[in-house]
Every structure is written in C-alpha cells, then in structure tokens.
Write the structure tokens for this entry.
Amino acid sequence: MALSKVNFNSMNVTPSANKAIKFNSSNNGLETGDLGGDMVLLSTQNASSSANIDFTSDIDSTYKEYIFKYINVHPATDNVQFGFQVDTGTNTSYGQTVTSTFFRAILSEADDSPDLARVASEDQQKGTASQTLAYGIGNDNDQSASGFLHLFEPSSSTYYKHFIGTGESIIASNQAYNSFVGGMFYQTSAITRVRFKMSSGNIDSGTIKMYGIN
C-alpha cells in the first residue's frame, strides 16, 4: 500500500482554545476543531453574597448535554438546600414542572449513624419548586457543598428534559451527606436558562462552571 505525503499547504492548525488537531471534512488535510467526547468550558460564575446564580446564554442546540459543576458552595444561612430550576426563551419565572426522585447516603464525623434512604421531602411530583441537589448544608466556615448536574438535550423540541445530579455536602449536624437526584422537566420547548439558589438566604461564596459535551 502506497503512503501519501501530507500537503503542508492544506493544513489549518492555528491554535484555538479547547480545540484539537483533526482531519478536515475532505480528509485531505488537517485543521483544528472539536473532537467527539470533548468537555468544553462555556462559562464560570463566582458567588459573592448572591441571591442566585443564573446561566442565561450558551444553552442551545450546539450541545446535547450540559454539565454544571458547583464547587465549595457555601451558604449564608445554616442548614439549607442548594438547588436549581430552569426556564424557556427569555422567561424568568423559573417554575417549570418537574418530577424527580431523591435519595442519600449519610455518615457522621463520629463514624456513627450510617444510613442510605430515599428522602421523600426532596422528591417532586409535578412540582414547580427549585429541585434540591445538595441537602442541609451548614454555614460553619469549613462547611460547603460540591457536586455536578447533567442536563440532557435542553434544546429538544420533542422530548421532556432529563437531568441527573450528585452532590456532597457537610450538613449542619456535622455529617457527610451524599445526595443523588434524577428527574425530568415536563417541557418540550427549549430550555434556555438555569438558575441555582439556596432554599433560604444567599449563596455566600462558591464557583459554578457550565460545560458543553460534544
């Protein structure tokens, strides 16, 4: 089998953030571009005594999956839930109908009272409240919550919008609380906005990052 030489004049490999070198569409040269499975950072927001953190751009048909990572989210108020809601178009009510399931694993710092159970109070059955991701976060200086949320194909005009999430919080009673949530929004219109907030009080500090998944 003969080997062909690369035509250097067919290369377009100008450096670009979050890109990699790949064959072009004609398979006769190289270029930079997205590769399958890439996780592309789209936005970073840092809380500072914030009532809520809203992502209102870059949620479109470019990606079929979006991941939100929240890192050391610290509440101003003790023993609160950290959650999210969504909206469509330019609407800002953030009250879309959701059905979800919620369970958790828990262990105290004293290595007692381990438990794994569903938490019915954080489930929703066609509710419109903010959906809990991390539970019972304490507001001591060393307490916070971290985790992630997956939102699948928010721009679909056919299907309801699925989500799953896992969060780890140090709760007010000094226990490690690992939360697991999944559900769907009863909405076939495109979701364009995501809001994160505490169940009471401000988000004192923390970082939330939004990624698109190729």
User: Anything to note?
Assistant: Residues 51 and 62 are 29 Å apart (CA to CA). The chain has a mean pLDDT of 90. The radius of gyration is 21 Å.
